[in-house]
Amino acid sequence: MISLESLGLDEANRIIQAGIARANEINSPSTICVVDAGGTTIAQARMDGASLSSVELAYNKAYTSVSTRLATSFITTIAQPGGDFYGIANGLSGRAIIFAGGVPIAVNGQVVGAVGASGGNGAQDEDVARAAANVIAQKLVVQAS
Predict the structure, then answer these.
(1) I need a surface site. Which of 58, 61, 93, 133 has the fewest CB within 10 A?
(2) What is the CA radius of gyration of the chain?
Protein backbone atom coordinates (compact mmCIF):
# COMPACT_ATOMS: atom_id res chain seq x y z
CA MET A 1 0.00 0.00 0.00
CA ILE A 2 1.21 3.52 -0.80
CA SER A 3 0.77 6.46 1.52
CA LEU A 4 0.43 9.79 -0.26
CA GLU A 5 0.59 13.17 1.42
CA SER A 6 -1.34 16.02 -0.13
CA LEU A 7 -2.28 19.62 0.50
CA GLY A 8 -5.56 20.20 2.29
CA LEU A 9 -8.08 23.03 2.21
CA ASP A 10 -6.41 24.96 5.04
CA GLU A 11 -3.08 25.05 3.21
CA ALA A 12 -4.78 25.80 -0.11
CA ASN A 13 -6.58 28.79 1.36
CA ARG A 14 -3.30 30.17 2.80
CA ILE A 15 -1.64 29.69 -0.60
CA ILE A 16 -4.49 31.52 -2.35
CA GLN A 17 -4.34 34.43 0.11
CA ALA A 18 -0.55 34.75 -0.31
CA GLY A 19 -1.00 34.75 -4.09
CA ILE A 20 -3.68 37.42 -3.94
CA ALA A 21 -1.50 39.56 -1.67
CA ARG A 22 1.43 39.35 -4.09
CA ALA A 23 -0.76 39.98 -7.14
CA ASN A 24 -2.09 43.12 -5.44
CA GLU A 25 1.46 44.27 -4.62
CA ILE A 26 2.52 44.03 -8.26
CA ASN A 27 -0.83 45.25 -9.64
CA SER A 28 -1.56 42.05 -11.58
CA PRO A 29 -5.18 40.89 -11.17
CA SER A 30 -4.85 37.12 -11.28
CA THR A 31 -6.53 33.79 -10.87
CA ILE A 32 -4.76 31.50 -8.42
CA CYS A 33 -5.51 27.77 -8.40
CA VAL A 34 -4.24 25.15 -5.95
CA VAL A 35 -4.37 21.45 -6.77
CA ASP A 36 -3.70 18.42 -4.60
CA ALA A 37 -1.15 15.69 -5.28
CA GLY A 38 -3.57 14.06 -7.74
CA GLY A 39 -4.17 17.24 -9.74
CA THR A 40 -7.68 17.95 -8.42
CA THR A 41 -8.56 21.54 -7.60
CA ILE A 42 -8.74 22.24 -3.87
CA ALA A 43 -9.28 26.00 -4.07
CA GLN A 44 -9.30 28.66 -6.75
CA ALA A 45 -9.90 32.41 -6.68
CA ARG A 46 -10.30 34.88 -9.53
CA MET A 47 -9.49 38.42 -8.51
CA ASP A 48 -11.60 41.30 -9.76
CA GLY A 49 -10.17 42.36 -13.10
CA ALA A 50 -8.53 39.03 -13.92
CA SER A 51 -9.24 37.84 -17.44
CA LEU A 52 -11.75 35.06 -18.08
CA SER A 53 -9.05 32.95 -19.73
CA SER A 54 -6.96 33.11 -16.56
CA VAL A 55 -9.34 30.68 -14.82
CA GLU A 56 -8.57 27.73 -17.09
CA LEU A 57 -4.93 28.71 -17.55
CA ALA A 58 -4.27 28.86 -13.78
CA TYR A 59 -5.74 25.38 -13.32
CA ASN A 60 -3.80 23.96 -16.27
CA LYS A 61 -0.55 25.48 -15.00
CA ALA A 62 -1.09 23.89 -11.57
CA TYR A 63 -2.07 20.57 -13.15
CA THR A 64 0.96 20.55 -15.47
CA SER A 65 3.25 21.38 -12.58
CA VAL A 66 1.97 18.69 -10.22
CA SER A 67 1.81 16.02 -12.93
CA THR A 68 5.41 16.63 -14.05
CA ARG A 69 6.73 17.71 -10.64
CA LEU A 70 8.34 20.69 -12.40
CA ALA A 71 7.75 24.42 -12.55
CA THR A 72 6.16 25.34 -15.85
CA SER A 73 8.81 28.05 -16.29
CA PHE A 74 11.41 25.26 -16.38
CA ILE A 75 9.31 23.15 -18.74
CA THR A 76 9.46 26.09 -21.16
CA THR A 77 13.22 25.55 -21.44
CA ILE A 78 12.99 21.81 -22.15
CA ALA A 79 9.91 21.88 -24.37
CA GLN A 80 11.69 23.54 -27.26
CA PRO A 81 12.58 21.57 -30.42
CA GLY A 82 15.20 19.00 -29.49
CA GLY A 83 14.40 19.26 -25.77
CA ASP A 84 13.42 16.34 -23.54
CA PHE A 85 9.84 17.63 -23.22
CA TYR A 86 9.38 18.71 -26.85
CA GLY A 87 5.78 17.93 -27.78
CA ILE A 88 4.39 18.05 -24.24
CA ALA A 89 2.19 20.98 -25.29
CA ASN A 90 0.10 18.36 -27.10
CA GLY A 91 0.04 16.08 -24.07
CA LEU A 92 -1.92 15.76 -20.85
CA SER A 93 -5.18 15.74 -22.83
CA GLY A 94 -4.47 19.25 -24.06
CA ARG A 95 -3.96 20.63 -20.54
CA ALA A 96 -0.15 20.93 -20.69
CA ILE A 97 1.06 24.50 -20.25
CA ILE A 98 4.61 25.38 -21.18
CA PHE A 99 4.87 28.94 -19.95
CA ALA A 100 5.52 30.47 -16.52
CA GLY A 101 3.11 30.44 -13.59
CA GLY A 102 2.87 26.82 -12.39
CA VAL A 103 4.89 25.77 -9.34
CA PRO A 104 4.97 22.40 -7.58
CA ILE A 105 4.80 22.38 -3.78
CA ALA A 106 6.99 19.82 -2.04
CA VAL A 107 7.19 18.82 1.61
CA ASN A 108 10.11 16.66 2.73
CA GLY A 109 11.01 16.07 -0.92
CA GLN A 110 7.54 14.84 -1.89
CA VAL A 111 5.29 16.87 -4.19
CA VAL A 112 2.03 17.40 -2.30
CA GLY A 113 0.32 19.73 -4.76
CA ALA A 114 0.91 22.75 -6.95
CA VAL A 115 -0.21 26.31 -7.52
CA GLY A 116 -0.96 28.01 -10.82
CA ALA A 117 -1.28 31.73 -11.39
CA SER A 118 -2.53 33.51 -14.48
CA GLY A 119 -3.56 37.03 -15.35
CA GLY A 120 -0.35 38.94 -15.91
CA ASN A 121 2.65 38.43 -18.13
CA GLY A 122 4.89 35.40 -17.61
CA ALA A 123 7.16 37.07 -15.07
CA GLN A 124 4.18 38.32 -13.05
CA ASP A 125 2.47 34.93 -13.07
CA GLU A 126 5.69 33.24 -11.95
CA ASP A 127 6.19 35.82 -9.20
CA VAL A 128 2.63 35.35 -7.89
CA ALA A 129 2.84 31.54 -8.02
CA ARG A 130 6.20 31.41 -6.22
CA ALA A 131 5.06 33.86 -3.53
CA ALA A 132 1.94 31.76 -3.02
CA ALA A 133 3.89 28.48 -2.82
CA ASN A 134 6.42 29.95 -0.42
CA VAL A 135 3.79 30.42 2.29
CA ILE A 136 3.84 26.64 2.87
CA ALA A 137 7.64 26.48 3.02
CA GLN A 138 7.70 29.41 5.48
CA LYS A 139 5.10 27.77 7.73
CA LEU A 140 7.08 24.51 7.79
CA VAL A 141 10.24 26.39 8.83
CA VAL A 142 8.35 28.17 11.64
CA GLN A 143 6.86 24.89 12.88
CA ALA A 144 10.27 23.18 12.87
CA SER A 145 11.85 25.96 14.99
Answers:
(1) 93
(2) 14
